[in-house]
Amino acid sequence: MPGRPLGDHRKHDKSRHRGNPYFSFNTRGLTVLAVQLLEKLAGGEPLSVPRCVVPRIGSGIPLVGRQDELAELKTALATAAAGRAGAVLVSGDAGVGKTRLLTELVAAARSGGTTVFTGRCLDVDEAGLPYLPFVEALGQLTPAQRAMAEHRSVLSRLMPGVTAVEESNEPAMDQLRLFDAVHGLFSDLAAQAPVLLAIEDLHWADASTRDLILFLVSRLYTQRILIVGTYRLDDLHRRHPLRPVLGELSRLSTVELLELRPFDQVHAEKLVDELADGALPPATVQKIAKRSEGNAFFCEELTAAYGDGAGVPAGLADLLLARIERLSGDARKVVRAAAVASQIVTHASLATVSGLPGDVLEEVLRETVQHNVLVTADGGYRFRHALLREAVYDDLLPGERVRLHAGYAQVVTSQALLAYHSFRSHDLPGALTASVRAADEAGKMGAPGEKLRHVEQALELWSVVPDPEQSGTTELGLLRAATRAAIAAGEVERSVEYGKAAVALADKLDDPELSALTRHQLAIASISLEHRGSDIQRIVEEAWELVRDRPASVVKAKVLALAAREWVWSWEVDVERMKSLAEQAFQDARLLGATAVEVDALVTKAVFAEWDANIEEAIAMGKAAIERAASIGAYDVELRARKNTAVVLWMNGEKTEAIRMMDFIITRSAQVGLSWGLSGLDARVERICMRYALGEWAEGLKLAEDVDGAPTVARARMMAPTLWILAAQGDFDTLDARAELLAAQSEDLFTHEMGNVGRAEAALWRGRPEEAVEHVEAVLSAMETLARGSVTDTMMALAMGVWALCDIAEAARRRGDQAAVDAAIDHGALLEQRVHKIVPQRYGRGRRGEHHPESRAFQARVAAELSRLRGHHDTQLWQDAVGPAVQMEYWVGVASWRWASLLLADGNRDQAADRLVAAYEIAVNLGANPLRDAVTELAKRSRISLPGNEIAAEPNSDLTPRELAVLELVAAGLTNRQVGERLYISQKTASVHLSRAMAKLGAANRTEVVSIAHDRGLIGQYQG
């Protein structure tokens, strides 16, 4: 759902005030009118007053992001209650949250026994409604409090019902007596209970109200009084009458200033999420929060209007435009011209486009700045709020908009701006030429997202502009540029579509090398999208056939270098052939002077060196490739070399160096505009996985949130490994929500592969082994479709799949269902066969030619789980599983927990206790709550003490042969009656034996006694 309705706001239209008694008066009789106004307010009648007052925002949700400010106000209130009076002036832009903050303070004050009075200033002319907030505040007096005021007859001006006093011929003395009476009344009230006087919107206060506030605050001493006032910073232009009052107040020692700044992105997103009841996807929440610029009211309006279009919501636009209506005619003209500029606009540009004389322009610009509509920035001007610019732009008439855009097209120098203004002014040929040039500029600046946007606009214009080649390019050139830019920007789906279109167009030109080159690009795009391996193989083979018999060329070398990377998209490859292709690409590129292709082939050769266990050589080749690629600006090759080298270092135990390099890749990819390109994104995903392996889970989750500006695929891929962390932490609600988002937002198989690994573990900890098996099957199916897979992901999935089948088989054994046990064992063998096909033995070998530690750890874990599945008690296998996993602390804990259960079954309590304590400490240190609970439960059943969790002495567990026999049958799922029939005893006798066994083992029920007996090896294991 888009969000709750958040109010109705109208333009500040002075014409609506005609005939309204509240806006058609002079200064006489103001008190009576004020009283009538307050009576209407109290009676709930609607008032025809301008709706420029910001409404209470999000009043139905918890306070977001203002806890520190609220704490400051509560401290000031407590100080006043202790006998040190004070005042706090709360400032902030319109809609930033001043009213909500004051509402929270008022509620807290009332609940604490403070007497609260509130008043508001209204947006009327300077002479209207004097003392209005005090009239409103004193109207809240109780009968007893009114009695305290009646002897102060001068208060009749503010309080109906108090005997009036005749005015003297000395207005100044009359005002002083009034001020003194108000001060005396609040002082008397404060003698009975602490008093909070809260006045909103001081920027609209009349002169009399400002004077009275200054009088009261300057006479705050030991009274138990706190005065809190709010005002809008953005309404305080230089000549605003409140400014001198604030200057005087700020010099008083009893006054504190509290500025409410806009929310940061995190708190803005939290507010939007609360407003939407969690119904909006994270990407939408981020977009709304960013567009709001941290303004709470903007958040509310944009959330409420979600789904109604991309423009500014009508209510918000009306409120924003009310600020413009207060300006002079020339100032409004300049503001409209500035809105068309879309960004910072220079004085010279405004002079040309607006047509105003220089002296007039200077004066109206000063007016717009003083009224906080425009602000100075980088030698020009911009709107204080981007949404204000949008509202003004949307309010322009069509012809006015076209005319202003045409004016800017004559003065801008940036090709990007020229393209924008030409397009908006309907100069399509000019827009096409400028778009092509703007794309080139963006590419040189390392801004692939901007380049893609300009190229796409050029492609849209291509078919509607006469003689489009006059722009200096071709349609195929634009398609190839779009493919490259989309790859670099991480827009992988679009890169594939543009790549296909480029291939189709190139094939019509009868140029084999051009056709091969477009296929090369399409293959790279398809790798980025994790396309089916068979599709990528077909594209590469087509490219190779086009250049196979042609002389050496840069295009042919590129195709050779790509074909040498066949392992990337297929597991059934000829390694020697790939080595030969890489060497040929390397030599041809060197002869042709194609350094980028030569270095790319060198990166591939480094991979083969690692496969041959020549680790030092592989690292040296990788570092050489990094240096050469960086020197020529081949950034995509440089990042690929860095990422591959970092992975080799990691897999061979050089964790610190690997992490340093991976962190640098993230920084470097941002520097060169390739944050979301293939290697830049891979580095981010790998870094999250490294954080997971090292137990740095909070950092991993934080890194996954650093997705500002990321395309959907990148967001999804970075979110997927966080499911591993959430499963290990036991945060299943968050995991479920993210899994649902992944399913809805991404069709990327690699993303679902990683995500399903986490979902499988979560299902296991939740006691849903059948569901876990489904997720493991999904992982393997994704890998089989891709025709490739990650060693770690695959082995993790297999370990979890066999773990789930063990749980299924164990439950089947307990109920005596041998067929189900056999089915689980067969299923485990099938999973193992599939994994061996996906992950051939040539991968994952280190310096000594053996598998890398992570690979060996999971292989040992799988072997141990398979043994458990088959009903065997091989503790050595679990010991083997712990050894290689030492650098993955979490999996050491999980393996230790399993190992301990088998040690207990063998009667080795001392060693089991050691493993349980080790697993428990790991779980607590990491925050691995499901593992901690499982270890605690096993220790409790086995009467083993854990750190900080001492267990009472173990009860006598010497079971008689008859009690053991009963337990065996109960474990097989038989009822007491069936146990009696099997053992030729009565049902009652069987029940007695079971009760005695439960007492000896300290169990509370049948299920627990069977679990304890299994854990201690007291009953036999069914062989499958």
From TrEMBL:
Keywords: ATP-binding, Nucleotide-binding. One of its GO terms (cellular component) is cytoplasm. The keyword Nucleotide-binding applies. The keyword Ion transport does not apply. GO terms for biological process: regulation of DNA-templated transcription. PROSITE patterns: HTH_LUXR_2. GO terms for molecular function: adenylate cyclase activity; ATP binding; DNA binding. Residues 1-22 are annotated as: Disordered. Residues 952-1017 form the HTH luxR-type domain. Residues 1-10 have a biased composition (Basic and acidic residues). PANTHER family: TESTICULAR SOLUBLE ADENYLYL CYCLASE (PTHR16305), TRANSCRIPTIONAL ACTIVATOR DOMAIN (PTHR16305:SF35). This is Regulatory protein, luxR family.
